Amino acid sequence: MKQPVFTGSGVALITPFTSDNEIDYPALKRMLDFQLLNGTDAVIVCGTTGEAATMTYGERMRTIETVVRHVDGRVPVIVGSGANNTETAISLSKDAVRAGADALLVVTPFYNKATQKGLVRHYTAVADAVEKPMLLYNVPGRTGVKCTAETYAALAAHPNIVGVKEASGDLSLVQKTRELCPGDFYIWSGDDGLTAPMMLFGGKGVISVAANVMPKEMHQLTAAALRGDFVTAGQMQLKLRRLCEALFWEVNPIPVKTALSLMGRCEEVFRLPLCEMEDAGREKLRAVLQSYNLI
User: Which of the following CATH numbers is that of domain 8-227: 3.40.640.10, 3.20.20.70, 1.10.510.10, 3.40.30.10?
Assistant: First the structure.
């Protein structure tokens, strides 16, 4: 039986940049220390929130290696290695494994809008090429294509495919996936605001943007759900609602990196085509952070 890569709260880590547009490795290490000190159960690096699409190959590899060395086996390190070219996804996945990844997170091919048959073939080709656990990543709002429960069921038979980061916002899909797939095909929420309800349907945790800002609380929420205390998990979900909502007022990761900058944890530097929040949005975000005593 396949085992989950992690249970609980995995942080979808931002990538801090310096004012001269280089990766800020000291800030990255400080963020990792903050996460580990506050109970984060896994670190996800070079994903959407990490602005991996704007990083060079060398930057990605050095960032992965830096995170792996700094974490030093204390929690799993999961690396985003998806692409809309299957051979590129295979190469990125192999290189991520060589850099020390414990597992891979592979997004559905974007822009191409593959059929479900194409998705099965794509994911199978990537999973065949590596000997590490692989999580699918379904985020149709960014990629333009949505996996079905039947596709999950077909892919669940692969020994290296252990589950999915489900960010479609479709709880009916989650329920159907749980019905059609074996017990060792695991589901992680890709939406902070749906963590508790998704875990009620058997999810193993969350890959969280909000954990960048409030890692202890996201860990506690998922820990409550994992022990079956959905009253507490639901209460915590409601408590975090305004923050989870605020972190998506503009496209991720603009608000979360802005929040971390306001908290003094990194510089507010983005790579184009991403850019700074509008002033009005920043002030609204500041007020939310103040309401949680984060600044």
Answer: 3.20.20.70
